[in-house]
Write a structure and sequence with these properties.
alpha/beta; 7 helices; 12 strands; 35% strand; globular
């Protein structure tokens, strides 16, 4: 089993500008802008992931002749956890526009008034995943529980050849948990890594609740 971790904040790029806006409370007030920034992060992450995928040569006919080009051997399958992952997913889909798609519904079940909770997966819509490259995206990788349960749900549709976990903000704890619990050839991509969480498992400094910021508060 091989696991690689890419923290994209360790290199300067326009991604840093988008992350600054995603985190800023004054910019977050514009939910359309927040969604678009998540989408743009997804686009940049898709570009970075595209560099490690397999390509083959193809002769393409132009109006004036032929050109030898490189194209993907196989499109990845794009998977996301509802609902917060939708804008990030759309960013990936803008670049991998021929990809198949998987959607997973997972939610927290809180126990009374304390901070303890469980994560439950209740819905999965997915093509066959056997032997394919899967990009599983979710804006926040906090404890890692949702990501691990999502991967386990994906196994109902086959075992991927390689898993790319893509997240906007991860924690050290979440990365460790995913590494320990997912026995797969895997690469983790994070636009930023923060080092603290609250007792309710919100990332600090993080950005708040990505789903609420993108789509409004929920009961």
């Amino acid at each position: 089993m091989t696991i690689k971790i890419h923290n994209l904040s360790q290199q300067d790029s326009i991604l840093s500008q988008f992350m600054a806006e995603i985190r800023a409370v004054d910019v977050q007030a514009d939910s359309m802008r927040f969604r678009r920034n998540l989408e743009r992060v997804g686009e940049l992450m898709a570009y970075e992931i595209s560099k490690v995928l397999a390509y083959k040569k193809r002769s393409v006919t132009t109006p004036l002749g032929a050109s030898d080009c490189k194209v993907l051997v196989q499109q990845p399958v794009l998977a996301t956890i509802l609902r917060a992952g939708l804008p990030l997913h759309q960013g990936f889909l803008n670049y991998f526009d021929q990809a198949e798609n998987t959607f997973i519904s997972a939610y927290r079940i809180h126990h009374g008034d304390d901070d303890a909770f469980d994560v439950e997966v209740e819905y999965l819509a997915s093509p066959d995943l056997e032997g394919k490259t899967v990009i599983l995206c979710d804006p926040m990788l906090a404890t890692g529980s949702s990501m691990v349960l999502a991967y386990q749900a994906l196994l109902e549709r086959g075992t991927p050849r390689h898993l790319h976990v893509a997240t906007v903000i991860a924690t050290d704890q979440g990365i460790r948990f995913v590494q320990e619990q997912i026995p797969a050839e895997m690469t983790i991509w994070a636009a930023a890594v923060d080092h603290e969480m609250t007792s309710k498992s919100y990332i600090v400094p993080g950005l708040g609740d990505a789903g609420d910021l993108a789509y409004g508060s929920k009961e």
